[in-house]
Design goal:
The protein has 283 residues and is α/β, with parallel strands linked by helices. It has seven helices and eleven strands. The strands form three sheets. It has a seven-stranded mixed β-sheet, with helices on both faces. Strands 6-7 form a two-stranded parallel sheet. Helix 3 crosses helix 5 and helix 4 packs across helix 5. The two termini are 22 Å apart.
Length: 283
């Protein structure tokens, strides 16, 4: 028995009925969004109806620049608006996309973790103690770190971007939060095309601390999504082990791989179909 969602190759399209429904999933984002480009998701329903979802990435590279001033905010806003405009042009040409997704990468967290140095030498304890604290480091109040995270996200003006999504004319929109951290962060100090040159030789922050920062960012992003009526797609439990990204989802120490994209893509497809059927609650 085949799963409701599977992923196929371009060559497989030739064997499908020419009347098979084709939809587009447009992904806006930084380098974290590139892993989705070109994915072809094949959905089966109980009536043997087939729908093909093609994922297309609109790369917004400026979302990974340092969060330094209002100039940054204008660059990112322009990128998002231009990407939405390009998608609108495609729709006018008849390539109607049913789903719009904003994929927020981890550079905002990298700035928080390394450029600002908020947690260079300290740790904090999250509510519920899901992730243990690092007893070798001084502990500061959770509320203090949370306030710093909220200020970092305020610079990004994520709520404004989500409003653009909601008002773009697409009936369905999602937000993909940053992926879980890699187990080792030594790649931060290695040459990599995705990192700013000044990002090298930064302090190594223990996994437990990095993981809690990731989880805190995701929690705050999901709260913003809730306020704007955009559904977040968070697969933390499915894609982590030992408080880090599962090895099978690692690409290069900085990004997740295509298997991670298919995991998230399948959820996007399943939720799109469920929402269209009136199942509004997140599964």
């Amino acid at each position: 028995m085949e799963l409701p969602v599977s992923f196929i190759q371009n060559a497989d399209l030739e064997s499908l009925d020419p009347n098979t429904e084709l939809r587009f999933v447009h992904i806006l984002g930084d380098s974290q969004a590139l892993i989705y480009d070109g994915l072809l998701g094949k959905y089966y329903d109980n009536d043997d109806k087939i729908i093909i979802f093609k994922f297309v990435t609109m790369h917004c590279p400026r979302t990974r620049e340092p969060l330094v001033d209002s100039h940054y905010q204008k660059l990112v806003r322009d990128d998002i608006l231009n990407a939405v405009a390009r998608i609108g042009t495609l729709r006018q040409q008849g390539l109607t996309g049913d789903v719009l997704v904003f994929s927020d990468g981890s550079f905002q967290m990298h700035d928080f973790l390394y450029a600002r140095g908020i947690v260079n030498d300290i740790d904090f304890e999250e509510p519920g103690r899901v992730v243990p604290r690092d007893t070798s480091r001084p502990i500061v109040p959770y509320a203090l770190i949370r306030q710093e995270v909220k200020q970092q996200l305020a610079k990004l003006e994520l709520g404004s971007f989500l409003k653009v999504m909601v008002n773009s004319g697409f009936p369905i929109g999602f937000m993909v939060p940053p992926p879980p951290p890699h187990k080792s962060d030594t790649v931060i100090n290695e040459p990599h095309e995705s990192f700013r040159p000044e990002g090298r030789n930064m302090p190594i922050i223990p996994l437990l601390t990095r993981t809690k920062v990731h989880r805190l960012f995701i929690n705050e992003i999901e709260a913003i999504c809730s306020g704007e009526g955009v559904e977040p797609v968070n697969l933390w439990d499915e894609t982590t082990e030992g408080h880090a990204l599962k090895p099978q989802f690692e690409l290069d120490g900085a990004h997740p791989n295509r298997d991670f994209a298919m995991c998230v893509g399948a959820r996007i497809i399943e939720r799109t179909v469920a929402i269209e059927r009136g199942e509004k609650d997140v599964g």
